[in-house]
Amino acid sequence: MSASLFDLTGEALALQRQIDAAAADLFSDDPAVVAAATATLETLISAEADNRKAVETKADAWCWVIDHIRAQAAARAAHAQRLKDLATAAEQQADVLQDRLIQALSKIDSDATKWELPNHRITSRRVTAVEVLVDAYDLPERFQRVKTTYSPDKTALTAALKTGAQIEGAMLTERRSWSIK
């Protein structure tokens, strides 16, 4: 069974500590200690190179899995959008058919507000709604609703903070964004 990425990176850290310890012995005044340290470093460097290849191979496999999952997510999102579009089209089609049915039935009895059919009942209700034909600011003030929202101006904040300004409640942070290609 191959080692996990966690195991391989742990092994890489252990090898690095061993390399650091052996490298410190290179500065010894005793030639035997220097020779032993050199031999140890040769072995450790070979092991580190093998470990690095294993880490890269394992990490590459992880990238494949991540790409595969993202591709599945994209395909599912596209499928969901297609289904949403189909549902919207079906709903529009049903609305058109309903309007045609009501028009046809209204030709028989234009004053009817309901129809009792063998398997269905069609009913209506009167609805009163306001239709505003102008922009809200053209209406008298008492018929206007004002909404105020606040959001930070991150561009201005960034510029000010980069010049050294101290702004309570805001600070510059650095993050690393990763992508797999």
Task: Explain what the structure shows.
The chain is mainly alpha-helical. The chain has helices at residues 5-24, 31-108, 154-162; strands at 114-116, 121-123. Strands 1-2 form a two-stranded antiparallel ribbon. Helix 1 (5-24) packs antiparallel against helix 2. It is elongated, with a radius of gyration of 36 Å. The model has no long low-confidence stretch (mean pLDDT 93).
Question: What key attributes describe this structure?
Answer:
181 residues; two-stranded antiparallel ribbon; mainly alpha; single chain; 3 helices
Give a short summary of the structure.
By secondary structure, the protein is mainly α. The protein is built from three helices and two strands; from the N terminus they run ααββα.
